[in-house]
Design goal:
The protein is mainly beta. It is built from three helices and 29 strands.
Length: about 425
C-alpha cells in the first residue's frame, strides 16, 4: 500500500508490501527497480543525497522523504476543463497551495513568480511585486518565513490587459517558488481550459433566491461585515459571512451546478451548496451549511467539491482531513443545532462547493481508498543533485490489488523532479 504523511514539514511517502506473498514479491521487485535507478545516478550512488531527501529501507518497506518545497493543490485543478467537464470561468483566479520546510519570504519579490500564457497575449510574468499577486498564510508564521500559504494571481485585477481570459482558451501558467535557503521549485506548467460562451450563459441560470445583509459596527474590529443568505428552497438558511474588502464578492452559484456526491461509503446529509467565485479569500469566509432534517448534526462531516470531484474534507468532530487541507480552517467548526435547518458553521479559505455528509469520514492509514483522488504533488526532490548535468528519469509500476497504482520519478533538466502518485 502507499501512505503519505507530513513529517517535520516534509512529504513522507511510504510503499509497504502487504497481502499475499505473490503481491509482496511484485512490490519488492518494483522497489528494487527504484533503488537500482537511484543507484545508477553518480551523485546518489556514492551515498550523498541532496538536502531534504532521504531514502531508507525500514523493515518490510521503503521510505522516501521529499524535499523542502511542495505544491499541494491548485485552483483551478491542473487540466480542469481539458480532461473533464469542469467549468472554469473566464474571470477565474489562479492559486497554488505551497508548503515549505524552510519557509518562504513573502516580502521577497521573486519568492513566487507566475508566467502566464493565454494564447492571446505574449507570455507575461507576475511576481510578489505585482498588484495582481497576493499571498494568504494558513499559519501564524512571520511574513519572512511562511511555511504554508496560498499564492494567488488575480487576472481580474489587471489594468492594462483584459481582465478576463479568452473564452474557450487553454491557459498555461508556469510557477516558480524560491524558499529562504534559495531552493527553487519549478514544476511543469499548469494548464486549464476556460468555459465557452454557452456554458457561461448557462451559469447565470437557476440561481437561488438570496438576500444580502450588512453588519455595521466600525468599532468592533471584526472583518466580517457583510453576508448573503439563501431565503427560499431546499437550501434555505445557507449563508456566507465575509469581509466586504475582498477583491471578489462571495455568492451562491446555480442550484444544479454541482454533481451529486459520489464518495464510497459516504451519504448526503443535506443539499450541496454551490459557491462562487472559485478563488482564495484574504480573510477566511464563514460558511453555514444546512443539515437535513432527521440527521444528528454531531454525526455529520463535510465534503467539498474542488471543481472536478468530491473530496472528504472534515469529520464529524471538525478535524480537517488530508483532502480538506487548504480549504477549511482547522478548529473553526461550530454546530448550530438550534436553527431550522440545523447549520454547520466553518471557515474556509476558498470556494467551490460543500455538503454535509455522514459515514466514512475518517483517515485510513492501513487501507487505501478504492478510488483514486488524483492528487498530484510537485516536489523539489533532487535539486542540483546530479553531477555534471547528468539527466535522470525513471518510472516504476507496482501492480497489485490494495497497493499503490504506480510511483513515478521524473528528472527534468538539472533542477526539478515531478513526483506523481495516485492512491
Amino acid at each position: 500500500m502507499i501512505r503519505s504523511v507530513l513529517k517535520n514539514g516534509l512529504k513522507v511517502i511510504r510503499c509497504l508490501p502487504r497481502r499475499s506473498s505473490t503481491e509482496r514479491r511484485r512490490v519488492l521487485a518494483g522497489l528494487a527497480c527504484i533503488l537500482s535507478l537511484l543507484l545508477s545516478v553518480p551523485a546518489l550512488s556514492g551515498g550523498s543525497l541532496p538536502d531534504g531527501v532521504r531514502i531508507t529501507h525500514p523493515r518490510n518497506g521503503f521510505l522516501m522523504e521529499t524535499a523542502p518545497i511542495e505544491i499541494r493543490d491548485s485552483i483551478p485543478r491542473d487540466e480542469a476543463g481539458i480532461v473533464n467537464f469542469a467549468r472554469v470561468p473566464d474571470e477565474t483566479g489562479f492559486a497554488v497551495l505551497i508548503r515549505s520546510a524552510h519557509g518562504i519570504d513573502t516580502h521577497a519579490p521573486d519568492a513566487v513568480r507566475f508566467t502566464i500564457d493565454d494564447g492571446l497575449l505574449p507570455p507575461y510574468v507576475r511576481d510578489l511585486r505585482s498588484d495582481t499577486v497576493r499571498t494568504v498564510k494558513l499559519d501564524q508564521d512571520p511574513d519572512e518565513q511562511v511555511t504554508v500559504l496560498w499564492a494567488v494571481y488575480d487576472r481580474f485585477l489587471e489594468t492594462y490587459i483584459p481582465m478576463t481570459y479568452p473564452l474557450n482558451a487553454v491557459i498555461y501558467i508556469k510557477v516558480e517558488v524560491r524558499d529562504i535557503q534559495n531552493n527553487i521549485l519549478q514544476p511543469p506548467a499548469f494548464e486549464f481550459k476556460i468555459e465557452n460562451l454557452a456554458r457561461k450563459a448557462a451559469s447565470r441560470q437557476n440561481l437561488p433566491e438570496t438576500d444580502e445583509f450588512y453588519m455595521i459596527d466600525p468599532d468592533s474590529g471584526d472583518p466580517y461585515d457583510a453576508g448573503i443568505e439563501i431565503i427560499d428552497g431546499e437550501l434555505s438558511g445557507a449563508k456566507v459571512v465575509y469581509s466586504s474588502r475582498e477583491p471578489l464578492t462571495p455568492a451562491f452559484g446555480p442550484l444544479d451546478g454541482i454533481e451529486e456526491i459520489n464518495l464510497d461509503g459516504i451519504l448526503a446529509a443535506g443539499q450541496p451548496v454551490n459557491l462562487i467565485p472559485h478563488t482564495v479569500f484574504d480573510v477566511p469566509v464563514k460558511l453555514f451549511i444546512p443539515v437535513a432534517d432527521g440527521v444528528d448534526i454531531t454525526t455529520a462531516g463535510l465534503a467539498y467539491h474542488d471543481g472536478t470531484q468530491w473530496l472528504a474534507a472534515a469529520d464529524a468532530d471538525g478535524s480537517v482531513l488530508s483532502d480538506g487541507e487548504g480549504w477549511m480552517v482547522p478548529g473553526s467548526r461550530v454546530n448550530h443545532a438550534e436553527t431550522r435547518p440545523a447549520l454547520i458553521e466553518v471557515q474556509v479559505y476558498h470556494f467551490s462547493g460543500a455538503q454535509a455528509v455522514v459515514g466514512g469520514m475518517t483517515e485510513e492509514e492501513d487501507k487505501p481508498p478504492d478510488h483514486g483522488s488524483g492528487t498530484v504533488v510537485y516536489a523539489s526532490c533532487f535539486m542540483n543533485s546530479v553531477a555534471g548535468g547528468t539527466n535522470f528519469g525513471g518510472f516504476v509500476a507496482l501492480i497489485g490489488d490494495g497497493c499503490c497504482r504506480f510511483v513515478g520519478l521524473f528528472r527534468q533538466g538539472a533542477q526539478r523532479v515531478r513526483l506523481s502518485f495516485f492512491y
